[in-house]
């Protein structure tokens, strides 16, 4: 019966397709109604791999060493993505604190100045320092991120994020460096 289609038939067809699409959306597509959709990651394998490959002792809190509520949300190890840093590497481990603030451990063997500026979102160096587990950490303050920076020959370690200096200090104190 070609040529006898009506507007009514077209509307019914569109309604059937819409109902089918709604069923797929409701039942087949996962929906996360939680407050924060960021997934927690297990970083143990990446930590072991980075410690074996890195030319510097990789710093990270041992899994389970931070207080309850801290959760790892991102982890990477690989080449630095800064100009003129060929062959240099960077370790990144991101966390959310119990009050949903961001804290990251950033570590690299590249030039300290550009690396610190990049990972701290251009935070400014202050005259304030903190001694944490026998190491001298310099405070950086910025509009977006604050940071604690520890530089030593061969590697720069930065604990940075939106968290308070108290939480940044807590992370810096939890760091354990080892060479795989």
Comma- or semicolon-separated keywords:
single chain; 180 residues; alpha+beta; seven-stranded antiparallel beta sheet; two-stranded antiparallel ribbon; 4 helices; elongated
Kindly describe this structure.
- Helix content is 27%, strand content 34%.
- The chain is built from 4 helices and 9 strands.
- It has helices spanning 7-27, 44-53, 112-119, 165-174, and strands spanning 58-61, 71-79, 89-96, 102-108, 124-132, 135-141, 146-152, 155-161, 175-178.
- The longest helix has 21 residues, at 7-27.
* SS-derived structural category: alpha+beta
N- and C-termini, Cα separation? 75 Å
Radius of gyration from CA coordinates:
24 Å
**Roughly what is the average pLDDT, rounded to an integer?**
89
- Quick one: how many beta strands? 9
Q: What characteristic shape results from the CA principal axes?
A: elongated
Order of helical and strand elements? HHEEEEHEEEEHE
**Which consecutive residue ranges, at least 5 long each, have pLDDT under 50?**
none
């Amino acid at each position: 019966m070609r040529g006898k289609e009506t507007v009514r038939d077209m509307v019914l067809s569109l309604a059937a397709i819409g109902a089918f699409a709604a069923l797929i959306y409701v039942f087949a597509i996962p929906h996360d109604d939680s407050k924060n959709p960021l997934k927690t990651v297990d970083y143990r394998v990446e930590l072991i791999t980075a410690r074996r490959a890195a030319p510097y002792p990789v710093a990270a809190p041992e899994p389970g060493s931070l207080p309850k509520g801290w959760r790892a949300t991102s982890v990477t190890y690989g080449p630095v993505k800064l100009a003129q840093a060929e062959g240099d590497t960077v370790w990144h481990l991101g966390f959310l604190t119990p009050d949903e603030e961001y804290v990251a451990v950033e570590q690299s063997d590249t030039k300290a100045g550009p690396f610190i500026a990049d990972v701290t979102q251009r935070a400014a160096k202050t005259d304030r320092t903190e001694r944490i587990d026998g190491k001298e950490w310099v405070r950086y303050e910025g509009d977006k991120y604050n940071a604690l920076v520890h530089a030593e020959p061969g590697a720069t370690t930065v604990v940075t994020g939106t968290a308070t200096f108290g939480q940044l200090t807590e992370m810096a104190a939890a760091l354990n460096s080892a060479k795989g």
